[in-house]
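note to self — DONT lose this again. spent like an hour looking for the file last time. sequence + predicted structure for the chain T wanted, 157 res
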Amino acid sequence: MTVGRTEYLNDPAAPEPNSLVPAAGVLAVDGHGRLLLQRRRDTGQWAIPMGKQELGETVAQCAVRETLEETGVTVEVTGLLGIYSDPGHIVAYSDGEVRQEYEVILTGRPVSGQPAANNEAADVAWFTPAELSDLDIHPTQWRQLHDWLDGTHPRID
């Protein structure tokens, strides 16, 4: 069963959150300056690979695991992009969970593997910064991408 999701950003019509779940991901950049993104199956939008941290793992372990699971690429962590915990960013899931954003986004570089679609990502690809404007990207993901593009990191909200 695929769980759908709807994201809200500073929307008074957003439902009240009922959970706060730590999530982590890696904005991986290859030797050509391209960024690794996945097209989410649940929204159809392009995003930095990330997911829920599991008990028994560190933030970095979670971010590396989620990146591999969602893209087919193993990454090495190189730094911190930011901690994003905006109470105005709400994610409502079709199973009734409504989360307030809590994402730790690390920076990294690819070590092995090739981008590949899977059960979470309809597509996975490397993009140059110039190609990003042609993609359907949620505003909260743009905030994170702009932090990297503008060099304004680490960011802590």
